User: Fold this.
Amino acid sequence: MKEDTEKISCHVCKKIIPKAAALHSEGQEYVVHFCNVECMDYWKKDKESKKKKE
Ligand SMILES: [Zn+2]
Assistant:
């Protein structure tokens, strides 16, 4: 199986997308994938709001 046909699921909405087309963000301990910028922004905002609570 070629790497560019590998499928992954969006971290936010769980939509299955080709890994080559996915956006990704490197967290402190892991890399997360997103189907589009809206999902990436959602995750970033969610992460920020969790930081403020601590
Ligand atoms: Zn998504």
